[in-house]
Amino acid sequence: xxxxxxxxxxxxxxxxxxxxxxxxxxxxxxxxxxxxxxxxxxxxxxxxxxxxxxxxxxxxxxxxxxxxxxxxxxxxxxxxxxxxxxxxxxxxxxxxxxxxxxxxxxxxxxxxxxxxxxxxxxxxxxxxxxxxxxx
Length: 135
Description:
Elements: E1 6-11, E2 18-23, E3 26-32, H1 35-40, E4 43-48, E5 52-56, E6 61-64, E7 73-76, E8 84-85, E9 93-96, E10 108-114, H2 119-125
């Protein structure tokens, strides 16, 4: 259901990486406590791949993976900012960092804590996170 979606644009700090994403103006953002998200202070909202477009900078991205290698932590080689990534919970979609969006399209942010330290258990208990990358 595309009703109410707005086009958000954003990118990394140096401007090499730019993207657009169609999402609600009221964002449902996850704060994950897994090892990498804790170190990066990763807050993200999840969208289907069909609602995300990389506008420029594919050649400026590099990818870090670890453990299961399902999540693809992409970041700019120049400035080091991760403005989006492929989350383990939704590898067919994107996790987008709301703090990397350009100003003017976000109306509100609802932050939900996600217990990534106990990832498998937390995923089993969460009713909707796996479906967030489905259209």
